[in-house]
Amino acid sequence: MAGGVGLAPFLLSLERGGPGPALVLFGGRTRERVAPAALLPRGTPLELATDDGSAGFHGTVGDLLEKLVEEGRMPRNSHLQVCGPEPMMAAVAALADRAGLPCLVSLETRMGCGLGICAGCAVDLRPGAEGYGGAEKVLACKAGPVFPAGDLAWEKG
User: Exposure string (b/e) for 19-46, b if CB count within 10 Å is 16 or more?
Assistant: First the structure.
C-alpha cells in the first residue's frame, strides 16, 4: 500500500518479485497525484484510490483496503507493506490490527545524520513493544526505517 511518494520504496521490490503475488493499492488526493501504472513492472495488479474520486476508488487508500477486507477480497494470509503519509499509515495500522493482518510500515521520518548521532529521527514505541530492550523511543535510522506497525505509538489526531 502506498500513498503519494510512498510508492518509491516498492518499485525495486516489485521488479525483483517477492515470495508471493503482490497487489498494489495506491492512493492520492487526485488523479494527478497518483503515479501512472507504467512505473510498475508489467502485469502488477494495481488498485487506485483518490480522495476526490477522479481515478479508481472514491476515498482513501485505507478506505479501499477496508472495502477489500469486508468483501473478502484480501486473503487472510496477506502481509501488508505500507509507506506514505503518517496519518495514512496509522489508519492502515489500526485496520490491519482489527483484521489480524501482519503489517510493516516504512517510515518517511527525516534522518538528519543517518548514523544515530543527532537523534532527529526518534520514533515513539507502543508500551510493551518487544525487541527494543524496554525502550520508549528508538532511532529510525538505526532500528528501522521499517517497523511492524503494532510496535509504534501512533499519534492520535
Answer: eeebebbbbbeeeebbbeeeebeeebeb
